[in-house]
Amino acid sequence: MSKTPEQHKSSGETPEKTESGRYMRQVRSFVLREGRLTKGQAGAMERQWPKMGIDFKGELLNFDAIFGNSNPVILEIGFGMGKSLVTMAKAAPEKNFIGVEVHTPGVGACLLEAELQEVSNLRVIEHDAVVVLKEWVADNSLDGVQIFFPDPWHKKRHHKRRLIQLDFVALLRKKLKKGGVLHLATDWENYAEHMLEVMNEAPSYSNQSTDGTYIPRPEERPLTKFEQRGQRLGHGVWDMKYTAI
After folding, report:
1. How far is C-alpha 181 from the geometric centre of its chain's CA atoms?
2. What Rg value do the Cα atoms of the chain yield, rounded?
3. What count of other Cβ atoms lies within 10 Å of the Cβ of residue 156?
4. Cα–Cα distance measured from residue 144 to residue 151, given in angstroms and rounded to the nearest whole number
5. CB of 164 within 8 A of CB of 147?
6. pTM for the model
7. Alpha-carbon distances, residue 56 vs 128, 136, 144 (angstroms)
8. Cα–Cα distance for residue pair 242/240, rounded to 1 Å
9. How far apart are CA 21 and CA 142, in angstroms?
10. Long-range contacts of 112-116 (CB under 8 A, 24+ apart)
């Protein structure tokens, strides 16, 4: 017997409706956590969402209309609290950035930081990235996709929940322009190996690494406080860049 949408929500699964109207199980790469917004985050949501928030209107997004220009568009999936995303947007005004995040406090924090930094080339979406890619984003429209430190789901029985899977990177490839770049980063070596294995199998991608593995941290990706602390403790971080071919 198929589950209702409510049962899927409570079990950590996303329902996907078939043509028959029944719901099929779709493994989700995140768990929705209830979180309170701080006063500052709530205020930023109220002030900045009308300017920087993107709501779905039942049709593909028109990036030129959203940003008022035709600059390259970079999509970040799972930006957390958004500080590094805002830093990247501020450092590259010649590009447009869209951040997708499912957790409201993170969206509020990102909007607050963007407000403080007076960043205007950034927009945010509060929704499941898979749905956004499938229903909101046109094929061959993105110049870049970045996914930094996604949930590693470190227990082996949870590896199926990892975001980086063959079907997902195939979806990303459809949305990337030819020559667009997928930038991945993780601080879990096992997940880095998993990412490499997936990307080696994925068609229409070319690894930018000279030895077919990882690259040094690119200058445009900010070094986070968490990452700095990890470095002091001897923890590694693995970056990968793939060009859509």
Report:
1. 13
2. 18
3. 8
4. 20
5. yes
6. 0.84
7. 12, 7, 21
8. 7
9. 32
10. 112/40, 112/41, 112/43, 112/44, 112/48, 113/81, 113/82, 113/83, 113/86, 114/48, 114/52, 114/82, 114/86, 114/89, 115/44, 115/47, 115/48
b/e map 25-37, b = 16+ CB within 10 Å: eeebbbeeeeeeb
Q: pLDDT tens across 156-201, in order?
A: 775 888 999 999 999 999 999 999 999 999 999 999 999 999 999 9
At which residue do the structure tokens 């950035």 appear? 97
The strand pair at 23-27 and 73-77 is best described as unpaired
Q: What are the residue numbers of the active site?
A: 151
Chain position carrying tokens 């300017």: 51
**Residue 202 DSSP class:** S
- Identify which of 111, 102, 158, 156 has the alpha carbon closest to the alpha carbon of residue 131: 102
Q: Which amino acid is at 163?
A: L
- Tokens (6 digits) for 104: 């409201």
Sheet of 238-244: strands edge to edge? 122-125, 96-100, 73-77, 142-148, 176-186, 238-244, 205-207
Asked if residues 114 and 122 have their Cβ atoms less than 8 Å apart, the reply is: yes
